[in-house]
Design goal:
Elements lengths: L2 H54 L11 E5 L5 E8 L6 E9 L4 E13 L2 E10 H50 L17 H50 L6 H31 L7 E4 H11 L1 H7 L2 E6 L4 E5 L1 H17 L6 E8 L5 E7 L30 H11 L3 E7 L3 E8 L11
Parallel strand pairs: 7-9
Antiparallel strand pairs: 1-2, 2-5, 3-4, 4-5, 6-8, 9-10, 10-12, 11-12
Helix pairs in contact: 1-2, 2-3, 3-4, 4-8, 5-7, 7-8
Length: 447
């Protein structure tokens, strides 16, 4: 799981937990706030009524024929009452109380206040229905819940956007320094723009490491080139001397056979060195891949190259690449070597009078599969995992086999992003499958 996703999930979960806690505490808080608001409103109405009494007098509410005054609003949500009372202790309190109104018991939040005016004590009561208080409380609760939900959603989206922005340099470092750094020669040392010190330090450390790797790679490539040159030069000199010795008519037949054996050994060494050098150059990305290579003409060229060997062994080779497939940004010489090694392997381990098929077919998604199938002796199941290892000749006793042909084929296939699979049944034959990927969208052919 990505770091930004973990951060976002953590923030979302933490907000949900906070929301649940608030949802549990919200009713109590809203109830308390509603009561405080109601008490404050009752106190304000009390001051307003007292100002009216001081300005207009008690007679505006209680006449000589009455001893009290009471008024309820239409929905019985609020009331005001004023009545004369005997002298007594002062009263100034707010409490819940039940009142009978028109044969109905209604619960009120009642403010009671005793005061004296014109030598007479009076009791002022102002009440508000607890039902209206509960409605106000529910409205507060709903609004608060909606605001919390909106706040959680907005902050979560803001966190996701911010984390993506914050981690974009990190993803750029991954893409540029690690994921797309296929070869030391193609390293990109341009610094990544970021204001985050941690990412800047990571980028600097990776660039230092890449510099070290590239320097080591350059030294290794130079060493391989020098070593191959130094090895091939004396072998060429030995070959020249052996040729001169064979030209000497005084050389005995026995010594001539020894010289021929020595020549064969020198030839073997030169072939092995060239093969290893080719593998090294391919792995070090020293071959350009800027050609457009149609497979059908390439297969036809490989088939023409092996016609003499086919005729000697009485083998038949059939090719069918309909429709054809074009490899973009490839190396024709290396692709020729890849196909030649597979066809050569099919010839070498086939039966006398056997058959070889080279067939191509498109795959869903725009890819292509090229199959090289033979009717040879097949490969043992336990040998298949080691088939592409260098110098592993398996059960073959062929003295001309160096165990490098299939290793070279695998290296070339990997260089071009081609999958190479093998299926084999002992006694029936072997099939090599080359899976060519579909061209990337918008990939242009080289000029």
């Amino acid at each position: 799981m990505k770091l930004s996703t973990k951060f976002s999930l953590f923030n979302a979960v933490s907000r949900v937990v906070i929301l649940l806690v608030l949802a549990g505490a919200l009713p109590l808080a809203m109830s308390h706030l509603a009561r405080l608001a109601t008490d404050q409103r009752l106190a304000q109405k009390k001051e307003k009524v007292l100002r009216l009494l001081r300005r207009n007098g008690i007679s505006a509410f209680i006449t000589a024929e009455q001893s009290s005054y009471g008024s309820y609003n239409l929905l019985k949500e609020e009331f005001i009452s004023l009545e004369a009372i005997p002298p007594g202790p002062g009263i100034n309190e707010i409490e819940d109380s039940k009142r009978a109104v028109e044969d109905e018991i209604v619960e009120y939040r009642v403010l009671s206040y005793a005061f004296a005016q014109d030598g007479q004590n009076y009791l002022l009561e102002i009440g508000r229905s607890t039902g209206s208080i509960g409605e106000t409380e529910r409205n507060f609760r709903h609004y608060a819940l909606y605001m919390l939900l909106v706040a959680v959603a907005l902050t979560t989206l803001a966190d996701v956007a911010f984390f993506r922005y914050l981690l974009e340099p990190f993803y750029t470092i991954i893409r540029q320094r690690l994921k797309n750094a296929h070869h030391p020669a193609a390293f990109n040392f341009a610094p990544i723009k970021t204001s985050t010190d941690d990412f800047r330090y990571l980028d600097e450390s990776l660039r230092e490491m890449m510099t070290t790797i590239q320097a080591s790679f350059t030294k290794e490539r130079k060493f391989i080139a020098d070593a191959s040159h130094e090895l091939l030069t004396p072998l060429a000199a030995l070959q020249y001397r052996f040729d001169n010795m064979l030209a000497d008519e005084s050389l005995s037949d026995e010594n001539q056979l020894r010289v021929v054996d020595s020549q064969r050994t020198v030839h073997r060494l030169r072939t092995i060195i060239r093969s290893l050098l080719m593998i090294s150059k391919i792995e070090n990305d020293q071959f350009a891949r800027a050609e457009t290579v149609p497979l059908a003409p390439l297969v036809a060229e490989v088939c023409d190259e092996v016609q003499d060997r086919l005729a000697v062994l009485g083998l038949t080779l059939h090719q069918d690449l309909t429709p054809d497939f074009t490899v973009l940004h490839g190396n024709r010489s290396l692709l020729f070597t890849l196909l030649y090694n597979l066809v050569s392997n099919a010839i070498k381990y086939n039966r006398a009078g056997g058959r070889i098929d080279v067939r191509g077919r498109p795959t869903p998604g725009g890819g292509y599969v090229l199959e090289v199938r033979d009717t040879g002796v097949g490969i043992a199941r336990e040998q298949l995992p080691r088939l592409f290892l260098r110098f592993d000749k398996g059960a073959t006793a062929d003295p001309d086999s160096y165990g490098l042909g299939l290793s070279i084929a695998r290296t070339i296939a990997d260089l071009h992003g081609i999958s190479l699979e093998v299926n084999s049944i002992e006694g029936l034959g072997t099939s090599f499958l080359l899976g060519f990927p579909a061209p990337a969208p918008g990939l242009a052919e080289p000029l």
